[in-house]
Fold this sequence. Notes:
Elements: H1 4-16, H2 22-34, E1 39-46, E2 54-58, H3 62-70, E3 89-92, H4 93-96, H5 106-115, E4 119-128, E5 131-139, H6 148-187, E6 191-195, E7 201-204, H7 206-214, E8 218-220, E9 226-228, H8 231-249, E10 257-261, E11 270-282, E12 285-295, H9 302-312, H10 316-326, H11 331-338, H12 342-356, H13 361-377
Antiparallel strand pairs: 1-2, 1-5, 3-4, 4-5, 6-7, 6-12, 8-9, 10-11, 11-12
Amino acid sequence: MTTARSTDRLIAPLLGAVADDANWTAFLAELSDQCRSEVAILFLHDYRSHAVPYFASHGVDEKAKADYIARLGAVNPWVAEQQPMSEGTVVLSHELASDASIPRSQYYDEFLRPLGIRHAVGSNILKSDGRAVKLGVLRSPKHGPMGNRERALLYKLMPSLQSVLRLRSRLEMLESRNRMNWAAIEALAIGVIFLDGSGIVICMNTAASEICRAADGIFVDEQGRLSACAQKDRRWLRTTIDKVRRSSVCDAAADTQVGSVYRRSGLQPLSLRIEPIGGTSVGDAAAAEIVVFVCEPDRSPQELEEALTAIWCLTAAESRVAGCLLRGLSLREAAAHLGIAEGTARFFSKQIFAKTSTRGQTEFVRVATKSVASLTCGRS
């Protein structure tokens, strides 16, 4: 009979499997022990290709595991149904294939017999799009067939198993999305710096690292905070970050701040946009509360132009003019920089403003920067 204490010994490693695959082994070992069995397996079976993309086990050696994934999963008579069973179903092995037929199968000869296995109880935990996550507990003939006791235990565990697998799937999806977001951030030519709720730098992309290492306008101080070289800019930056942080903590309307920072080299000032992002997960770091975008007007933001082209379908010529506007150049300066007539630059700017639904350079810079922030930070 299953007791609360024995169930607790199963639930603890099961919950741990949400974040760490190693806990599946501990869970399967405990489950095997409670079912008086030698083997327990958790696997993903694809009914279209008969592939086994995932396999965790207790009591299965590496060779048997490799053989199951490569060949034997496709001929397992206990999962031979054309369509997976309903979610949450628990069955005994003789209900899927007769005990007399199993010893005549390739699966028995190459997988079960070397492990000393004869009987099993299995379950279909989740299914989706022709795939099913299955759990099997297998025992030798000396303990006899599986019965209602083992079936009841798997049914009792089913809600927890389903919840853990759904949480793990969601976590893997978010982690994958996070990696893609960080790759997009790394590709940008503008600096992107993420701060935690106390204003400490969590991480930054390569462009921002280069800007901070140069210490020509901004840098990271000994306490890990973003700072400015000029005293007046340092006060402004500290006050502004704190203001944005407070607006985020108080759940106020997004309080985005824009400003510029003096550069001792004599180059044009750095343009900064500071915005609350409400606990966005960034790379492998903890959740960020604030993002700081840093633009070097003297540096061509090619990747930023590509991002804007993707958002608004700008032509190559329009994206070049848009890049100049984002760097703070006037239309006359943009035309001179690109080697085109001022009238041509003005025509392209009108096309840009029409496509972005903005009424001038100031609004375009604000809208474009926010759109790139949303694109790179994965915000909805």
